[in-house]
UniProtKB/TrEMBL annotation:
Transmembrane parts of this sequence: 12-30, 42-60, 72-92, 136-158, 164-183
Keywords: Membrane, Transmembrane, Transmembrane helix
Name of the gene encoding the protein in the UniProt record: SLC10A7
UniProt lineage: Eukaryota, Metazoa, Chordata, Craniata, Vertebrata
Family: Belongs to the bile acid:sodium symporter (BASS) (TC 2.A.28) family.
Superkingdom of this protein's organism: Eukaryota
Pfam families, alphabetized: SBF_like
InterPro entries (UniProt xref): Na+/solute_symporter_sf, Put_Na-Bile_cotransptr
Annotated protein name in UniProt: Sodium/bile acid cotransporter 7 isoform X5
Length: 198
């Protein structure tokens, strides 16, 4: 009985483990063009659903009050887009003397230069009872910043430049993050509409 209660309490982590195990057993289900069509369901539908649900569950006052925590936002963005890439670079200097493949190290540096994940940051913050409004703001703001900052970091640490489709990335972020959040807030503002999906 205690095990069942624990599973119910930790449903999110149990779900992650089950999904990873399923992906290991049958990876073809989740590839681009596969039955789950992650290029649509993950990139657009799942992210939009998460932010729509956040819009439903958060009061407008909570979102607006989160905007004024300038020190918090500065800390998160500097940690994510400056400290972490630099720490990864230092760590990779140690790993470079090992026989680890050079391209694997470059891949780790590339991942280290990425902006915060839009959806998982919000989900994990909500799961542990953190400041969801601040997580939403920093996820969205960090992703918009990353359009400019990530190519600069890659140029600095790897010496390679890349072309970034600013317009398409900006429009995708706007349509999957900002618009669903606003729609959720509009629904929340309607009398009697305080329900949310999860």
């Amino acid at each position: 009985m205690r095990l069942l209660e624990r599973v119910r309490k930790e449903w999110f982590m149990v779900g992650i483990v089950l999904v990873i195990a399923g992906a290991k057993l049958e990876p073809s289900v989740g590839v681009n063009g596969g039955p789950l069509m992650p290029e649509i369901t993950v990139s657009y539908i799942a992210v939009a659903t998460i932010f729509f649900n956040s819009g439903l569950s958060l009061r407008t006052e909570e979102l607006t009050s989160a905007l004024v925590h300038i020190k918090l936002h500065l800390f998160i963005q500097i940690f994510t887009l400056a400290f972490f890439p630099a720490a990864i670079w230092l760590f990779l200097q140690l790993l470079s003397i090992t026989p680890i493949n050079e391209w694997l190290l470059k891949g780790l540096q590339t991942v280290g230069c990425m902006p915060p994940p839009v959806s998982s940051a919000v989900i994990l913050t909500k799961a542990v009872g953190g400041n969801e409004a601040a997580a939403i703001f920093n996820s969205a703001f960090g992703s918009f910043l990353g359009i400019v900052v990530t190519p600069l970091l890659l140029l600095l640490f790897l010496g390679s430049s890349s072309s970034v489709p600013f317009t398409s990335i900006f429009s995708q972020l706007f349509m999957t993050v900002v618009v669903p959040l606003i729609i959720g807030q509009k629904h929340f503002a309607t009398p009697g509409s305080t329900a949310h999906f999860f």
